[in-house]
Amino acid sequence: MPCLNLSTNVNLEGVDTSSILSEATSTVSKVIGKPEAYVMIVLKGSVPMSFGGTEQPAAYGEVVSVGGLNPDVNKKLSAAISNILETKLSVPKKRFFLKFHDSKGSDFGWNGSTF
Protein backbone atom coordinates (compact mmCIF):
# COMPACT_ATOMS: atom_id res chain seq x y z
CA MET A 1 0.00 0.00 0.00
CA PRO A 2 2.35 2.71 -1.11
CA CYS A 3 1.16 6.28 -0.73
CA LEU A 4 2.88 9.22 -2.37
CA ASN A 5 1.87 12.53 -0.84
CA LEU A 6 3.04 15.55 -2.87
CA SER A 7 2.72 19.23 -2.00
CA THR A 8 3.78 22.06 -4.27
CA ASN A 9 3.51 25.80 -4.38
CA VAL A 10 2.57 25.56 -8.06
CA ASN A 11 -1.03 26.52 -8.88
CA LEU A 12 -2.72 23.43 -10.36
CA GLU A 13 -5.58 25.33 -11.97
CA GLY A 14 -5.62 24.40 -15.66
CA VAL A 15 -3.06 21.62 -15.13
CA ASP A 16 -3.91 18.09 -16.28
CA THR A 17 -3.64 16.58 -12.81
CA SER A 18 -5.13 13.29 -14.06
CA SER A 19 -2.03 12.64 -16.15
CA ILE A 20 0.22 13.45 -13.19
CA LEU A 21 -1.75 11.10 -10.92
CA SER A 22 -1.76 8.35 -13.55
CA GLU A 23 1.97 8.62 -14.29
CA ALA A 24 2.87 8.79 -10.60
CA THR A 25 0.68 5.75 -9.83
CA SER A 26 2.30 3.71 -12.58
CA THR A 27 5.79 4.81 -11.55
CA VAL A 28 5.36 4.06 -7.84
CA SER A 29 3.82 0.68 -8.66
CA LYS A 30 6.62 -0.36 -11.00
CA VAL A 31 9.53 0.91 -8.92
CA ILE A 32 8.30 -0.47 -5.59
CA GLY A 33 6.82 -3.62 -7.11
CA LYS A 34 3.32 -3.27 -5.70
CA PRO A 35 0.04 -3.54 -7.67
CA GLU A 36 -1.37 -0.24 -8.95
CA ALA A 37 -4.64 -1.13 -7.20
CA TYR A 38 -2.92 -0.46 -3.85
CA VAL A 39 -1.10 2.77 -4.78
CA MET A 40 -2.46 6.09 -3.54
CA ILE A 41 -1.28 9.47 -4.82
CA VAL A 42 -2.17 12.74 -3.09
CA LEU A 43 -1.38 15.95 -4.95
CA LYS A 44 -1.83 19.35 -3.31
CA GLY A 45 -1.11 22.58 -5.16
CA SER A 46 -0.90 26.25 -4.23
CA VAL A 47 0.64 25.32 -0.89
CA PRO A 48 2.53 28.28 0.59
CA MET A 49 6.12 27.10 0.35
CA SER A 50 9.59 28.59 0.44
CA PHE A 51 12.74 26.74 -0.55
CA GLY A 52 16.13 28.37 -0.18
CA GLY A 53 14.48 31.63 0.74
CA THR A 54 12.46 31.96 -2.47
CA GLU A 55 8.94 31.07 -3.49
CA GLN A 56 9.94 29.86 -6.95
CA PRO A 57 8.31 26.52 -7.94
CA ALA A 58 9.17 23.87 -5.36
CA ALA A 59 7.72 20.65 -3.98
CA TYR A 60 7.93 18.30 -1.02
CA GLY A 61 6.83 14.70 -0.98
CA GLU A 62 6.65 11.66 1.25
CA VAL A 63 6.40 8.02 0.26
CA VAL A 64 4.99 5.60 2.80
CA SER A 65 4.98 1.89 2.04
CA VAL A 66 4.57 -1.38 3.84
CA GLY A 67 7.77 -2.96 2.60
CA GLY A 68 9.37 -2.45 -0.79
CA LEU A 69 11.55 0.53 0.09
CA ASN A 70 15.33 0.34 0.23
CA PRO A 71 18.20 2.65 -0.79
CA ASP A 72 18.13 1.53 -4.45
CA VAL A 73 14.34 1.81 -4.76
CA ASN A 74 14.37 5.19 -2.99
CA LYS A 75 16.96 6.54 -5.43
CA LYS A 76 14.93 5.34 -8.44
CA LEU A 77 11.71 6.80 -7.03
CA SER A 78 13.38 10.12 -6.29
CA ALA A 79 14.63 10.35 -9.88
CA ALA A 80 11.30 9.32 -11.40
CA ILE A 81 9.06 11.54 -9.28
CA SER A 82 11.34 14.56 -9.66
CA ASN A 83 11.23 14.01 -13.42
CA ILE A 84 7.41 14.02 -13.37
CA LEU A 85 7.36 17.23 -11.34
CA GLU A 86 9.88 18.89 -13.62
CA THR A 87 8.15 17.95 -16.87
CA LYS A 88 4.53 18.39 -15.74
CA LEU A 89 4.78 21.29 -13.25
CA SER A 90 8.13 22.96 -14.06
CA VAL A 91 9.48 22.24 -10.58
CA PRO A 92 13.27 21.98 -10.96
CA LYS A 93 14.73 18.73 -9.61
CA LYS A 94 16.95 20.72 -7.26
CA ARG A 95 13.83 22.28 -5.66
CA PHE A 96 12.20 19.02 -4.55
CA PHE A 97 12.67 16.91 -1.42
CA LEU A 98 11.24 13.40 -1.06
CA LYS A 99 11.13 11.55 2.26
CA PHE A 100 10.71 7.79 2.53
CA HIS A 101 8.93 5.81 5.27
CA ASP A 102 9.02 2.01 5.25
CA SER A 103 6.38 0.94 7.77
CA LYS A 104 4.84 -2.12 9.35
CA GLY A 105 1.44 -3.29 8.17
CA SER A 106 0.02 -2.92 11.67
CA ASP A 107 0.71 0.83 11.42
CA PHE A 108 -1.85 1.27 8.60
CA GLY A 109 -5.60 1.04 8.65
CA TRP A 110 -7.40 -0.21 5.56
CA ASN A 111 -10.77 -1.78 4.85
CA GLY A 112 -11.80 -1.48 8.51
CA SER A 113 -8.69 -3.25 9.81
CA THR A 114 -4.91 -3.08 9.37
CA PHE A 115 -2.53 -4.71 6.92
What does this structure look like?
By secondary structure, the protein is an alpha/beta fold. It contains two helices and six strands. It has helices at residues 17-32, 71-89, and strands at residues 3-8, 40-44, 59-65, 96-102, 109-110, 113-114. The strands form two sheets. It has a four-stranded mixed β-sheet, covered by helices on one side. The protein starts with a strand and ends with a strand. The model has no long low-confidence stretch (mean pLDDT 96). It comes from Ilex paraguariensis.
Give me a quick take on this structure.
This protein has about 120 residues and is of the alpha/beta class. The chain has two helices and six strands. The protein has helices at about 15-30, 70-90; strands at about 5-10, 40-45, 60-65, 95-100, 110, 115.
Number of strand elements: 6
Q: What string gives the helices and strands in order?
A: EHEEHEEE
Cα gyration radius (Å): 14 Å
Oligomer: single chain
- Low-pLDDT runs: none
Overall geometry: globular
Number of helices: 2
Mean pLDDT: 96
For the report, how would you describe the main beta sheet? 4 strands, mixed
Question: Strand content of the residues, in percent?
Answer: 25-35%
Strand order of the largest sheet: 2-1-3-4
Separation of the first and last Cα atoms: 9 Å
Structural class: alpha/beta
Share of helix, binned: 25-40%
